[in-house]
Design goal:
77 residues; Arc Repressor Mutant, subunit A; single chain; three-stranded antiparallel β-sheet; 4 helices; alpha+beta; 18% strand
């Protein structure tokens, strides 16, 4: 979670499944950068993806991920 945009991505995904282009627009970064952030989150086991035609959708693996991250921020902060 070295990049604050990744927390924004998790917060967006807490509301439900989103496409890469929707996440890119709402978080405020280019699609290639968003894909890179999502790749890091997927490798960490925090998000999962599915493809529908040419569109890739992402979702949180477990909604408690965001709660745990916020708790760690409060303890550290």
């Amino acid at each position: 979670m070295a990049d604050p945009k990744r927390l924004c991505v998790l917060e967006q995904l807490a509301a439900g499944e989103r496409s890469v282009s929707d996440l890119s627009r709402d978080v405020g970064c280019q699609v290639p950068n968003m894909s890179q952030h999502l790749g890091v989150l997927r490798t960490a086991g925090l998000v999962a993806s599915r493809r529908e035609g040419n569109t890739v959708f992402y979702r949180l693996v477990d909604n408690r991920v965001l709660d745990a991250y916020r708790l760690l921020q409060m303890v550290a902060g």
